[in-house]
Amino acid sequence: MKHLTINMKYLFVFLLFVGGFGVYAQESIIKFINTKIDIDGKLNESVWQQVPKHTGFYNYAPNDEGLAENQAEVKLFHNKEYLYITLIYFDTQGKSQVSSLKRDVPIGLSDGFAMVIDTQNQEQNAYYFSVNALGTLIDGIVEKINGGYDFTTSWNAVWEAKTSIEGNNKVYELAIPLRALNFNAENSIFGIQFYVRDIKKNSWTILKNVKRNYRLFDLRFTEKFSVENLPNKSSSKFAITPSLTTNYQNDAIEDIDKTTIKPSLDVQYNVTSSLKLDATINPDFSQIDVDQQVTNLTRFSIFFPERRNFFLENSDLFSNLGVDGINPFYSRRVGANSDVQFGLKLSGNMSPKTRLGVLNVQTDKKEGIISQNFGALVIEQQLSKNFSTTGFLINRQETDKFEFVDDYNRVTGLNINYKSNNNKWIGLANFGTSFNDNVTGENNFYNAGIWFNKRGLEWSASIRNVGRNYITDVGFTPRLYNYDAINDVVVREGYTQTSVGVEYEKFYDKSRRLNNIRFINYENNNYFDEEGTLSQSSHFYNSAIFFKNLSAVYFVFNYDYVDLKYGFDPLRNGNALQPDKYNFGLIKVGYNSANNQKMRYRVNVQKGNYYNGKRIAGGMYLNYQLLPFANLEVSYDINVLDLGVLGKETFHLAQFTSEIFFNNRLNWTTYVQYNTQRDNFNINSRLQWEYKPLSYVYLVVTDNYNDEIARKNWGVAFKMNYRLEL
């Protein structure tokens, strides 16, 4: 009887233990509480005492072993209108460090709190919200790209956050309107991950344990939250943003002045809570932010990311249809040559497992440039936990007023994605076909790739083939087009590419000096022409030592074999390299300082060969933070190419950025860029005032000179928009 009593005691304790875990599991719920709170960073509302807390944050960087020394606790609930979140970070220091007061400057160089919300729990894309310790808002989109995940801050929403300091503790309080999120009441599971950035310790801590071999925003590692009483429809149907742009331009060479006044309208309509219609009429697609210039020593075009908000909601549906360097849809092609008259986009979830993207944009006829209609239809289907597929149709068609003309380009295809249950394997297969008037045959593209990833070891392999007539007028396929500098023609030529890569690194968690050593980071790309002959073989090898403060010293070796078939003029002096076989390599050594200091810097030196000549290069980067009032940044790259009898040229690329912060909503940014390869000296100075959430006034001055500092053109632009939600 005594034995039975003891066993009953153990059974009772065991049931309590299991029950405790059951209660903890039930805490992964976002409760519905019908109340509204003021966002002030104080957490003095009684509702926060009714909400379960989530704690037990793990280390992610600089080491990824065990629970974090400085813990945090997060709470969240919703009232069918707002998702409310609060986080308390139990810091050991009373001070805070931030790098910027400018909206959408990534939080990596500041103390702050961040979260990703996968509202469809499909691990394809997610919303990103973060706030630094001084209350600056950062929002964006995380999207799946081939074998990994990428991140952009160009997407924006209206939301609110406040911060405060209580002793050493940092307090963050957020309110995110549910109308800003793409959710479905039939799928009430959200995948959410929480992050704390402490730049003073140079650390990232994270709620759901993830190892450093995975990307920080890998959506396969989110905590699953069940959301109580999700509304069936959004509380807001419309977001309307009218804007007015006045632009004065002066062509100093031709002595021509031009002033334009352009009104435009953007509308977003929530068809359902998970399906959104975007419309734009007479839009101003001018770049308020300038593209960062680069020195391009390759024979092919460089990719620049999309910045225009119209294309960014559910952008992964359209931009993730191919692979790196072979993509049938590149939104920056749309409206590149003439003004956009109007655009429509329907995107989101038709059901929990089916996503739809439909896009149509009409451009205007202008100065001999024919008007065009651009269309895209994309359907993504989750077949199972491991497999998803995407089918697409891209169309570019010449128009005469609103009638289609026979000049067209169409691309259609199918993609299949695979992910393993243990998240170590990713697979991707692509097939595409293009259709063009008067062009037939050799118009297909296929790709098959696989990635493996575990802590300390990654490898990948792929093979792809591009037919010479796989023409994607709205896409990005630079290697398909070969410019012959001798005959001044562009030759379209198909190719086959094989790629392999492997990376091995070792972590030293108990070392006082070392964080990790990257012993091997090797990548090889081979390109074969249409006859199967090797036309280029590129090898990349990198090793690096990362110290405890995450400063690093590194070594890079590049080696290329090129069977050059067409003349190439890298010096841009009219003396082209002749078709021949070339072997050349380059050694690069560099040092990166720790990034949690007021002054950060990077330096590198390079020496080697370049085709049949020699190349010496170097670069430096310096950033100084006058926290929190200003941020100054300067970089300089030099490339000296000596091709013997063809000539010698030195390309300089210098960039200076000055950011002055008056407060979180008013800042003055100046870019100065000097690029001798493009014969351009550019000054862009922008005063930006966010007078209400996502409503802006811009005053922008641009000035362009040649490399001899003779003015080419200059201009002044004033833009104002107003966002209204109904």
From TrEMBL:
Segments passing through the bilayer: none
Domain Carbohydrate-binding stretches: 39-202
Cited CDD domains: CBM9_like_2
UniProt domain DUF5916: residue ranges: 240-341
Protein name: Carbohydrate binding family 9 domain-containing protein
InterPro entries hit by this protein: Carb-bd_dom_fam9 (IPR010502), DUF5916 (IPR045670)
